[in-house]
Amino acid sequence: MGNGLVKDIWVLSKRSVLTTLRSPFSFIPNLLISTFFLLVYDSGLSGISQLPAFDGANYLAFILPVSVVSAAIGGAGGAGQGIVKDIENGFFSRLLLTPASRLSIVLGPIIAGMLQLFVQTILILIVAFLMGLEVATGFLGVLVVLLLAVGWGLAFAGYSAGIALKTKNAQAAQAGTLIFFPLIFLSTTFVPYELIESSWLKVAATINPTTYIFESMRTVLIDGWKFWGIAKGIIAIMIACAITITFAALSAKKAVSRG
């Protein structure tokens, strides 16, 4: 049974990846926007890295996580869109008539979205290195950033898939993902927590899980191997994934029961 599940997930993930490759314009805009963020923010705001709170850190390394996380949020929407397309063209109903595991039907598009994000993050990192990025923890640190990005993307992909299965509507699935973009800016997006002056924004940043993803990536990129700084992001990802994947699974169960 375990081998059957793995095979089903492999087949459906492969199909989702091939479908994405046939429509490159579905993910290229998200990649371009994330790269644009990186170029503009580094060019326009790098001067504030001279403030004492930055402690001499390179602003490119500080702002890079914003570009990576924005790619994660935008790319994760692809999982939901793929499921909605399958529902609309009848493929989802035909899948339900096959022996394929119901879990694989949900995980296939989610894993494909993760792979898409993995490639996007690598391309963004290449651009950052061409701009002069230096990573305090070296190659292993780059791998940690990739894993954090993919983990955060998994959480959003689960949410996107859950919304798609619950609503069976492309517009609703897209809108459900877009509401997470404000999370990027209600965080330590442009400056460290210490430089945020508004009390309400400090509260928002404290309860915002995106803050801990940013801090984990920045710890790896700037500060080095500091356990708690990295662990906070991993914990945030684990909690978010547990919630969103459960939401997707429950939505799939209801979608199947409704036929």
Automatic annotation (TrEMBL):
Signal peptide: none
Alphabetical keyword list: Cell membrane, Membrane, Transmembrane, Transmembrane helix, Transport
A Gene Ontology molecular function term of the record: ABC-type transporter activity
GO cellular component terms listed in the entry, alphabetical order: ATP-binding cassette (ABC) transporter complex
Sequence ranges assigned to domain ABC transmembrane type-2 in this UniProt record: 25-255
Protein's membrane topology: Multi-pass membrane protein
Protein location: Cell membrane; Membrane
PROSITE patterns xrefs: ABC_TM2
Ranges that cross the membrane: 21-41, 61-84, 105-133, 139-165, 172-193, 227-250
Annotated InterPro entries: ABC2_TM (IPR013525), ABC2_TM_bact-type (IPR047817), ABC_2_transport (IPR000412), Nod_factor_ABC_transporter (IPR051784)
Keyword Transport found: yes
PANTHER family according to UniProt: ABC-TYPE MULTIDRUG TRANSPORT SYSTEM, PERMEASE COMPONENT (PTHR43229:SF3), NODULATION PROTEIN J (PTHR43229)
Family recorded in the similarity comment: Belongs to the ABC-2 integral membrane protein family.
UniProt name for this protein: Transport permease protein
Organism: Pontibacillus chungwhensis BH030062
